[in-house]
Structure prediction request, 398 residues.
Amino acid sequence: MTISPSIMTTYGRIDIAFTHGEGSFLVAEDGKKYLDYASGIAVNAFGHCHPKLVEALQDQASKLWHTSNLYRILEQETVAEKLVANSCADRVFFCNSGAEATEGAVKVARRYAWANGEKERTEIICATGAFHGRTLAMLAANDRPLFREGFGPSAQGFTHVEWGDIESLKQVIGKHVAAILVEPVQGEGGARKAPEGYLKLLNDIAKENGSLLISDEVQIGMGRSGTLFAYQKEDIEPDIIALAKGLGGGFPVGAVMAKAEVGDAMVPGTHGSTFGGNPLAMRSANAVLELLLENDFLSNLRKMIVYFDKKMDELIKNDMRINPIIFAKKGSGMLRGLQLIEDVNAGDFGNIAREKGLLLVGAAENTIRLLPPLNTSKEEVDNAFDILNDIVLELKKT
Prediction:
């Protein structure tokens, strides 16, 4: 079957259509079952059709879908209060996607500087390898020219420094800098975890300079790090946090969280979203938060992360015995990656995995990402690594 020509060709789509999913598995039109360790690119935090999410959306769909932010949305207030109660933030703005969240975070940072009489503070410092979304402004925040090619002049006010290199940051920091924007783990950049102590140094330098720290947790947030927010694994409190992906568990939800004095710079008329925080989205986000905050879920997740890490080590140990094809293991929590040697293409690796019933997703630096649902079972992890071992053995023979 060919892909409909009515669809704009912005994706190199794989010619598989799924009819339904359950838990960690997807089922295609031909009945083939796939273990989904792509999770919609870190979106399906609790897999497919989790009963709690299904119930919440079905219930809300029969009551109220949309009113706009001209009025109070009680479901929105419930989710905001839960996010605030479990973070260092005090204010929340809801949107629909990760790009909206990161762009909103930049607007908040610049507006805060402006409101404090520092109108020259407009620059946002980003890192090499960064990916913050695909809006015109976020293209400038990203670090891959391929994303920007053909879209005209880049938005002004973004500077890149070498990922993990504090000295390169010190060379460009100054009173013109509104904020440092950083991913605790770079997803699209190749599942790259921030070096030990790096985020703390960024935080300290930002504070000393009078700048803000923005934690882009669109991919690593909402439990994927093993804590509710990834920054909580570090000795820091970011001024602004960008969320999306896992927050809605599959329903489009994004959020910009900020400390009170920062968020309060956003007065009526400075920002908005027609659909952001609508009742359907908020019921889904609330269900996700309830699952994440249930007794022992996060502590059990951390145990599963330890087990997952052990399986990665075993895979690499077996691979090292002869003609290794895995260059390094990468990432953190349940955002993991296998960087392959140059002779083995990550896309080819992913194709073989798919043929064997395992869905993965590629990233920069010839890396294949593993993004399991947060509630994946030990048996599913074992299944995934049995397949990965088979792929490694198969590629050694070619």
